[in-house]
Design brief:
The protein is α/β, with parallel strands linked by helices and 136 residues long. It has helices spanning 13-26, 38-47, 70-80, 99-105, 124-129, and strands at 5-9, 31-35, 58-62, 89-94, 111-116. It contains five helices and five strands, in the order βαβαβαβαβα.
Length: 136
């Protein structure tokens, strides 16, 4: 299985550039949308609410962002999409080594993976195909 729509949510332009470039090289991704804040990503998802084919298959979500971190994003995402009509896999990203982040991420059933940044060291084919390292 390949992912048609990817949403990158990260305040780091450098990380977004790296991740977008690597995903494009896989040649299995249809579209990649980049948002540099949790708020901008939520607004984008609200616009897509009735457009299921365009809704992301995968969201790569940075944990450490100003104003709205990844956990605040997930809380708002849950309220907006309590029962998503299209399954969306969320992978939380962090350059932090704080084990509390992984534990907290595991509390969200929508989150299916916790990955270290940058993603250049991750098995992209497994992530896109849904076989990323288990979170729980």
């Amino acid at each position: 299985m390949s992912a048609k729509n990817i949403l990158l949510v990260d305040d780091s332009e450098i990380d977004n550039f790296i991740h977008e470039t690597l995903l494009k090289k896989l040649d299995v991704v249809g579209s990649i949308t980049v948002k540099i804040s949790g708020g901008a990503a939520l607004e984008y998802l609200k616009e897509l609410r009735g457009n299921t084919p365009q809704f992301p298959d995968i969201i790569f979500l940075d944990i450490r962002m100003p104003v709205m971190d990844g956990f605040a994003f997930m809380d708002a995402y849950r309220q907006l999409f309590p029962a998503a009509t299209k399954p969306c896999r969320v992978y939380m990203l962090s350059s932090s080594l704080d084990p509390g982040d992984r534990e907290r991420a595991a509390q969200y059933h929508e989150v299916c993976g916790f990955l270290s940044k940058p993603l250049a060291h991750q098995p992209y084919e497994d992530i896109i195909g849904g076989a990323a390292p288990a979170l729980r």
